[in-house]
Amino acid sequence: MRNYIGLIHKDADSDFGVAFPDFPGVITAGKSLDDARAMAEEALTLHIEGLAEDGEAIPEPSALEDVMADADNRTGVAILVSVKTEQPKAIRVNVTLPEDVLDQIDKYAEAHGFTRSGLLTQAAKRLIAEAA
After folding, report:
1. Cα distance between residue 31 and residue 8, in whole Å
2. pLDDT of residue 106
3. Model pTM?
4. What is the 3-state secondary structure (H, E, C) of 59-99?
5. What is the CATH number of domain 2-131?
6. Where does the HicB-like antitoxin of toxin-antitoxin system domain lie (predicted)?
């Protein structure tokens, strides 16, 4: 299991946001600190799975000292985010969506550092968890 640095940010009127210095553009959030930590593990795991699936290099985790040496990172609280090395096999599926919904999904995913698959997976898991 690998551990990466996640930086938690919280404004008075926002959820707890988590960004990953080793993966620029990958962000997630949660309503509570516990939710943010869980979402961070899931988002990072999905992103790394996507990189591996696409044959892209996965960076080595940075040292805390290196992350905090960047002045832009000092406003966040550093946490270790574990990436599970054994994940269920990803299965490619074909779904049909209205074009406007797919456009909204893609725009949201791009703006928030997700892949389309990662966003749909997180949304489905969150919806299922809320129903439970």
Report:
1. 12
2. 92
3. 0.63
4. CCCCCHHHHHHCHHHCCCEEEEEEECCCCCCCCCCCCCCCH
5. 3.30.160.250
6. 4-124
